Amino acid sequence: MIEPSGRRERKKAATRQKIADTALRLFLERGYDDVGIRDVAAEADVAVTTLFSHFAAKEALVFERDQGFEHGLVRAVADRAPGEQLIPALRQEIHALVRHCTAPEAAPVRSLIMSSPALREHEQSMRMRHADTLAAAIAADLGVPETSTACRTIARFVIDAYGLACEADEPGDAVDEVFRMIEAAWDASRLAPRLS
Are 118 and 57 a contacting pair, CB within 8 Å? Predict the structure, then answer.
């Protein structure tokens, strides 16, 4: 996450983090469906309007690091070293994200998400948005239209690699297996030679 530079930005970031931490604690203690927005606001000692100025919906409280996930993927494309190939850079980023998702301390949150249809649906819509953002970053890097089928397909495969690996018995092996297929698909596309 990017550190806010000004006093006001730091205060806003601290408030946002306090709300998210409070919400997650309450959700884990009582269950997602048994905690309302007003409960979270009261426990965090903020107004409901303040909560909504930081989070668009109750589900977003659980996915507080969503922006960091998306920014990491975009940075993996845009900030790679000269000559570094696209697919290996994305594989490395997905490995890091999967390690975070499958760490023992993440288990209660994963369990919370899996126990709630609303959270699973929100996660799925986030993944589609991440795929669209990643496709746009790949297309911009290559100088092709954002609607490029190859870019959109590879982006969706990358996001699916993350989801499949988080559910696998051997997450690292799953990432590598899926990325071998992604690399083959990318090599078969007409865009891959443009990266050389």
Answer: no
Residue 55, Ramachandran bin (φ over 0: left; ψ between -120 and 50: alpha; else beta): beta
Q: DSSP code of 193?
A: G
Rounded-to-integer distance, Cα 190 and Cα 181, Å: 16
Contact status, residue 46 vs residue 11, Cβ threshold 8 Å: no
Residue with tokens 């730091």: 10
Under DSSP, the state recorded for 104 is G
How many CB atoms neighbour CB 156 within 10 A? 17
Per-residue exposure over 96-121, b if at least 16 CB sit within 10 Å of its own CB, e if not: ebbeebbeeeeeebeebbeebeebee
pLDDT digits (tens, 9 = 90+) for 89-131: 999 999 999 999 899 999 999 999 999 999 999 999 999 999 9
pTM (predicted TM-score): 0.85
**Is the CB of residue 19 less than 8 Å from the CB of residue 61?**
yes
Q: Residues 6 or more apart from 98 whose CB is under 8 A from it?
A: 162, 165, 166, 171, 172, 174, 175
Give the position of tokens 């249809």: 117
| SS3 (DSSP) at 108 | helix
